Amino acid sequence: MREILGRRLQRLRNRLKSLRPAPGQSGDQALFDEALTCATVWQWPVLPGVGRSGADSTRCACPDPDCVVPGAHPFDPGLLAATTDPRMVAWWWANRPTAPVLLATGGSAPCAVSLPAAAAARAVVRLDAQGMRLGPIVATPTRWSLLVAPYSLERLGELLYAKDHVPSALRFHGEGGYLLLPPSPASGGGQVRWERGPADAGDLWLPEVEAVVDALVEASSGASGGGSRLAY
């Protein structure tokens, strides 16, 4: 399957060559490749994150001096601009080659549930032992995000209402949300990576949120490293 995806991606690169960044301004080619693959192979709507600025590239490029997710959120363009159009994706990264890659979650795109990395690793071991089929998993140095099938806010609300307790370390990326994708820089330092990539999921299997939430709630109860409400 990887070989087939590679051929498809190469054809897309050839078609969009005129829109690629000029030599000397190419930035991180891997970011463009990932954005293009997500948009065209997996049909996930993506957009560039705001990125960072300053001499040491640690300050968010948005106007908020106290931004809690520096560089790792939409700004201009806004979240509603997310697209699967390869021409738009190529134009964005031709002009902003180092921009992080953001997935607009929900709708027909995957949603996600994220929790602190150590707790997530324990939960994945438990789910694997139960024979649960998992989909792609996005990992930062501090948090993992398990991609799940799209769900509505109403459905999520009913699911969580039935729980005795939902830890604050557990976060949900549903409709109207976004998720930072590899190989973008993580907001707290380090780099985003695939713990389990989309190609590893075969036909891009996405479990229902109900199938994994109990294990994630249990694993994240009392977990340290939850961070702020937004940071990941």
Structure description:
The protein is α+β, with helices and mostly antiparallel strands and 232 residues long. The protein has six helices and ten strands. The strands form three sheets. A five-stranded antiparallel sheet has the order 8-5-7-6-10. The longest helix is centred in the first third of the chain and has 14 residues, at 2-15. Residues 21-27 and 225-232 have low confidence and may be disordered.
SSE arrangement, N to C:
HHEEEHEEHEEHEEEH
Global mean pLDDT? 85
Computed over alpha carbons, the radius of gyration is 18 Å
Helix percent band: 25-40%
Q: Structural class, from helix and strand content?
A: alpha+beta
As laid out across the biggest beta sheet, the strand order is: 8-5-7-6-10
Instruction: Provide the β-strand percentage band.
Output: 15-25%
Number of strands: 10
N-C termini distance: 31 Å
**Oligomeric nature of the chains:** single chain
Instruction: Name the poorly predicted regions.
Output: 21-27, 225-232
Cα shape: globular
What's the total helix number?
A: 6
Largest sheet: 5 strands, antiparallel
List descriptors.
232 residues; alpha+beta; five-stranded antiparallel sheet; three-stranded antiparallel sheet; 10 strands; 30% helix; globular; disordered C terminus
Question: How would you briefly describe this protein structure?
Answer:
The protein has helices spanning 2-15, 29-40, 86-95, 117-129, 153-161, 209-220, and strands at 46-48, 52-53, 59-60, 101-105, 111-116, 137-139, 143-148, 171-173, 177-181, 193-196. It is an alpha+beta fold and 232 residues long.
